[in-house]
Design brief:
mainly alpha; 13 helices; about 85% helix
Length: about 280
Amino acid sequence: MNRVPAPLLALTAMLSVQIGAAVAKTRFDEVGSVGAATLRLVIGAVVLALVVRPRVRHWTRAQWLAAVLLGLALGGMNLFIYVAFATIPIGVAVTIEFLGPLTLSLAHTRRWRDAVWAALALAGVVLLGVGPSAIGDVGGVVAAVLAAGCWAAYIVMNRRVGAAIPGIDGLAVSMLVAMVVALPFGLRPAVAGVAGDPTLLVVFSVVGLLSSVLPYALEMSALRRMPTRVFGVLQSLGPAIAALAGLVVLREALSVLEVVALVCVTAASAGVTLTSRRGVAAA
């Protein structure tokens, strides 16, 4: 995996997580949004733990703290964004959620060019955030904003865990922590839904792999080899990918305003990636 360019790993992770989210939303009627998030986290955490079998016996206190904090960020991010998905389109929710990594990228920027690209992405977020889809349900917007804060914390802690703990052992433990966070809220609707339709276990096994195991492992590997600020702005492609997944899987059509907003954030992502590569080449 080290031979694969870090930006490609990040893009693959985003594509995987948004397809998984769109598939999960098709089953909200059976398990609810929180139940769906819980099933995703439980299945993803169990599978990852069985595959990785993290060796934690000799972990230091700092390593445990980093893994637990990452798990808390993961749990909150998943629960809040799925609550948002239930009432507003996936593309809108993810664009609002992008406020987290966007703010993080602005806090870490040291070059005026990065600030320009971040401002362009922010313009896209504002355009989409004031559209009819976002205004239509305040609760969904608030949930997406809370997910944004968790996403920013996830980026910071993912990088710290990746630096402090070899391999993906830290991620495996963090997923278990996120599962524990979700269980009190989503266990009952998840169990009720699966009892009524056992095939949901198969569906959410796929969702867990697409939305949790694969993207988080890819992102951790990418963050080991690219600056946090570049990764944060690169995530601006997320809303465009989410909107595409919503259109293809859920038939959530895009308005003209949404198209303009997604063009803004996509251009910002391309710009920061190109200028970053030029800066590395010059160095």
